[in-house]
Amino acid sequence: MTTRAYIFDAYGTLFDVHAAIARYRDRAGPDADRISELWRTKQLEYSWTLTAMGRYENFERLTERSLDFALARFGRSDPALRAALLDSYRKLDAYPDAKAALGTLKQAGAVTGILSNGSPGMLQAAVDNAALGGMLDHVLSVDALGFYKPRNEVYALVTDAASVRPEEIVFVSSNRWDIAGAANFGFKPVWVNRANLPDEYPDLKPVAVINSLSALPSLKF
C-alpha cells in the first residue's frame, strides 16, 4: 500500500515538552525535572479523564491546571515562575531531528501534518517558533471536536482533511498510547521511542520503532 501522508503528534514528538522547565531550571530548583514530569503526566491525565466523562476544556487550560498542580505538589508558589513557564510552553523547542525529517518528506512529495491535543493557538505558536510552517500541509487540533485522543473521531480529522485513507497514512508519535490509538484507527503507526521505554498495548502494535525522527524518511512501508 502506498504511503501518501505523514502525520505527527506534536508534544513529545516534534516539540520537547521538557524544554520549558529547562529554560528556568535554576528558578524551579532541585525538583525541576520532577515538576516537569508531573506537569506532563497531569496534562494527559486531565485530557483522558474529561473525555471519559464527556466534558471538555481546551489544552491550554489543562496545561495551566496541570502546572498549578505540579508546582503546588513541590511547594513552589511563585506566580512569576508560573507565568514564565506557561509562556515558554507556547514556544517549545523542536527536537533537532524534526526539521530535517519533515524537509526530506516534503521534498519526496508526501503530505505532512500535525494532529495534536494542543489548542490551535498553542500549536501555531510552537510551529512558528520552530519555523516549521513551510513544511506542514495541515495543523489539526482536537479543539475542532471537543474531546481528546485516542478516540477514533480525532484520527478521522486527518483522513477528512487530507482526503486519504487510513492505510495510506503513517502516523508518528512518541506516546505509546497514541500509537495504540492510531493502530486501532487503521493508520500505519511509527513509535518514536526516544527514551527506550518497554513496549505495551501488545494488540495494537506500531509498524516500526525508531529512536530518532532522522530514521523516518528511510523507512519503507
Give a quick set of tags describing it:
alpha/beta; DNA polymerase, domain 1; 221 residues; Rossmann fold; globular
How would you sum up this structure, described in words?
With 221 residues, this protein is of the alpha/beta class. It contains nine helices and six strands. The protein is 45% helix and 12% strand. Strand 2 (111-116), helix 7 and strand 3 form a beta-alpha-beta unit. It starts with a strand and ends in an 11-residue tail after the last strand. It has a six-stranded parallel β-sheet with strand order 3-2-1-4-5-6, sandwiched between helices.
Cα-to-Cα separation, first versus last residue? 7 Å
CATH architecture of the largest domain: 3-Layer(aba) Sandwich
Based on CA inertia axes, which overall geometry fits?
A: globular
Number of domains: 2
Structural class: alpha/beta
The Cα radius of gyration reads: 17 Å
H-E string: EHHHHHHEHEHEHEE
Mean pLDDT equals: 96
Spatial ordering of strands, largest sheet? 3-2-1-4-5-6
Oligomer: single chain
Biggest β-sheet, characterized? 6 strands, parallel
Question: Which CATH first-tier class of the largest domain would you pick?
Answer: Alpha Beta
Number of helix segments?
9
- Low-confidence parts, pLDDT < 50 over ≥5 residues? none
